[in-house]
Amino acid sequence: TTNLLGKTALVTAAGQGIGRASALAFAAAGAHVIATDINGETLGTLVGEAGVTTRQLDVLDAHSIATTIAEAGPVDILFNCAGYVHAGSILDMSEEDFDFAIALNVRSMTRLIKAVLPGMLERGDGAIINMSSVASSMKGVPNRCAYSLSKAAVIGLTKSVAADYVAQGIRCNAICPGTVQSPSLEQRLAATGDYEKARADFIARQPMGRLGTPEEIADFAVYLAGATYTTGQAFAIDGGWAL
Ligand code: NAD
């Protein structure tokens, strides 16, 4: 089992879903966790959890990222989890949709990496985990144009950071989940107008016949935080969707 005792892990989008489960899993593995989210209310559900400090952070806000990292002290593990799904094809995607997907799903990650990397390089040790998706360069998925192009960029970012710093103790990997049970998934299912059918359709594309759980993805994030011989990889954890 992975022992993260003495490590500090910063998680974005830790208020709910995969980010929240990961904050708890990092803490259970012994890390001191700085759990961040734009939503102070959901973040509040982590207050009092052993090993977890909460801090409101909008990853679109460069100034807020800078102050958060300055006040955090050394960050050994960065989990860039924040991301957003825009539903639609290329014809449904406005310039604003494109810009927002890039800003939230990719540029925010570059800012956080830039903020923590100098400290990691000083210590010669760091694990960066970026949230991508099977819907990326891994697989073409209908009605996920802005999402998939931004999540594919996350894989490019991951490989680039891994290549530049592999000899200096930095590892950077991407997680590519299939469909995972989360609050935003529930909203997206409801938004289709036929919740039961949408849910059945999502389950049907997972060969294992079920959705993933946030805890399953969180376990994998903990593994990657401690996996000392892998970098630059995009790992599918998807119930067999990509096979
Ligand atoms: P979610 O979508 O239910 O929650 C997203 C969280 O992000 C919320 O807590 C929200 O407050 C936070 N957030 C939104 N904008 C933010 C901002 N500007 N700054 C900081 N936080 C912000 O959670 P989820 O479904 O577990 O998704 C988490 C990540 O996993 C996302 O990057 C998503 O694309 C990715 N992912 C999810 C699935 C899935 O099926 N759930 C599949 C593949 C990838």
From TrEMBL:
E.C. no: 1.1.1.-
Family annotation (InterPro entries): NAD(P)-bd_dom_sf, SDR_DHRS6-like, SDR_fam
GO molecular function annotation: oxidoreductase activity
A Pfam family reported for this protein in Swiss-Prot or TrEMBL: adh_short_C2
Signal peptide range in chain numbering: none
Keyword vocabulary terms for this entry: NAD, Oxidoreductase
Gene3D superfamilies assigned to the protein according to its UniProt record, in alphabetical order: NAD(P)-binding Rossmann-like Domain (3.40.50.720)
Enzyme class: oxidoreductase
PANTHER family documented for this protein: DEHYDROGENASE_REDUCTASE SDR FAMILY MEMBER 6, DIHYDROANTICAPSIN 7-DEHYDROGENASE
Family recorded in the similarity comment: Belongs to the short-chain dehydrogenases/reductases (SDR) family.
Protein's UniProt name: 2-keto-3-deoxy-L-fuconate dehydrogenase
UniProt organism field: Hartmannibacter diazotrophicus
